[in-house]
Hints:
Elements: E1 10-11, H1 17-26, H2 33-42, E2 44-50, E3 53-63, E4 67-75, H3 84-98, E5 102-107, H4 109-115, E6 121-131, E7 143-144, H5 147-158, H6 163-171, E8 176-180, E9 183-188, E10 194-200, H7 204-216, E11 222-227, H8 231-239, E12 243-253
Parallel strand pairs: 4-5, 10-11
Antiparallel strand pairs: 1-2, 2-3, 3-4, 5-12, 6-11, 6-12, 7-8, 8-9, 9-10
Helix pairs in contact: 1-2, 7-8
Bound molecules: coenzyme A.
Coenzyme A is lined by residues 27, 73-75, 80-86, 107-108, 110-111, 113-114.
Amino acid sequence: MGATDGPTVIKLGLEDAIAGLALSTEAHWNQTKEDWRVFLHDGVVFGIRDGARLVATAALLPYSGDNAWISMVLVTGTHRRRGLATRLVDACLATARQNGLTSWLDATPDGATVYGPLGFTPTLQLRRLKLVSPPRETSGSPAVASLDALRARDLRATGFDRTALLTAFAQRSGSRIVAADGSIALVRDGRTARHIGPLFADNAVEALALVHAIAQSETRPLLIDAVASQATFLEGLTASGWTIERPFQRMRCGPDTTAGEDMPFAVAGPEFG
Length: 273
Ligand SMILES: CC(C)(COP(=O)(O)OP(=O)(O)OC[C@H]1O[C@@H](n2cnc3c(N)ncnc32)[C@H](O)[C@@H]1OP(=O)(O)O)[C@@H](O)C(=O)NCCC(=O)NCCS
């Protein structure tokens, strides 16, 4: 299927959140309806329908400094290998180019095969880890920290001003921002597991201590998307019961635009960077 034939690409609206959630749930992803509302409200989500049914999506979320995050690239099982993902990511890239934005994404292995031919090149690697049963200990919760502190650390590390996104996360019921020594992290609800990230720390010892403190104060399964080059952090997680679920490859299309000073220990999630 060429880029000029095939089914029509449409822009989705807030009313499509449930249909989008059905696609991410089919892929066993952790997003909630609230996550879909972020993309549909603050970004642009392209979709393809087969009749009335939404069968494929891709989202572009603008960030500060001429950057945008592409995510939620999903095609229902019955409609794969027909060029739908390519078509939708192309629509995202066209929008990004019109607005002078560099596009970033965190690719699953299947996704990376789609993005390479579209001009994306690899940058850093991530590892998604899961802790199925957090240890039930009563050593208390880590200290609550402020949204301002998290925003400042996030800006320093990523180079993106993500005030709107972090504020939306923090305002959700079930979210908490916690800190200890030189570390800080956000914990939020997901569909099947609670998610830790972003997480910033001065060193791996501090980062691990905060993750352990969070785990001891949680009861549901936990996910974290760790930066693979933080080797000591990854080793510490796997040594304490976390298992690596899958890799993600960060990719960029367009000139390098970020001026992040610190490497995070864990990102906000592959769908948000
Ligand atoms: C990854 C995904 C979005 C691809 O959607 P798609 O519509 O099937 O992709 P396309 O048809 O545009 O594929 C374009 C090319 O990418 C490559 N490709 C896509 N899926 C592939 C796979 N599973 N294995 C190997 N190559 C693949 C092929 O080269 C393909 O061209 P071809 O079919 O002519 O050989 C889809 O499999 C999916 O929804 N997977 C689950 C969710 C996911 O991982 N999303 C990506 C997040 S980053």
